[in-house]
């Protein structure tokens, strides 16, 4: 899980890729639609999509009538892994804050 979370954050360090993830969070889109919405050139969007695909953050699907067209969508698994990691971090801090509160109350 740690590798998947690390890869997710590394890939999303780029603002254009974060925007692509936000856009795909609204629903599947084609590369051209993503490029226009993100204000990126087609070659730049192609590079970003290749990176997101390699990191397994997104999937693509060929359009049956035109094999040149692909529709991109978010994969659920990386989001679940990141949420699980965030839950662990939150649980740790809740525990630490609870112990600190107990210590303050006992020393008052």
From TrEMBL:
InterPro entries: ArsR-like_HTH, HTH_ArsR_DNA-bd_dom, HTH_MetalResp_TranReg, WH-like_DNA-bd_sf, WH_DNA-bd_sf. It holds the Pfam family HTH_5. SUPFAM superfamilies: Winged helix' DNA-binding domain. Residues 1-97 form the HTH arsR-type domain. CDD domains: HTH_ARSR (cd00090). Gene3D superfamilies: Winged helix-like DNA-binding domain superfamily/Winged helix DNA-binding domain (1.10.10.10). SMART domains: HTH_ARSR. Keywords: DNA-binding, Transcription, Transcription regulation. This is Metalloregulator ArsR/SmtB family transcription factor. It comes from Kribbella ginsengisoli.
């Amino acid at each position: 899980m740690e590798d998947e979370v690390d890869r997710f954050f590394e890939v999303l360090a780029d603002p254009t890729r974060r925007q692509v993830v936000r856009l795909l969070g609204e629903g599947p889109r084609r590369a051209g639609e993503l490029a226009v919405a993100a204000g990126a050139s087609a070659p730049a969007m192609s590079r970003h999509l290749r990176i997101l695909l390699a990191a397994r953050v997104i999937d693509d699907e060929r359009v049956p009538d035109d094999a040149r067209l692909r529709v991109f969508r978010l994969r659920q698994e990386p989001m679940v892994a990141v949420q699980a990691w965030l839950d662990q971090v939150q649980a740790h801090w809740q525990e630490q804050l609870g112990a600190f509160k107990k210590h303050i109350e006992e020393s008052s």
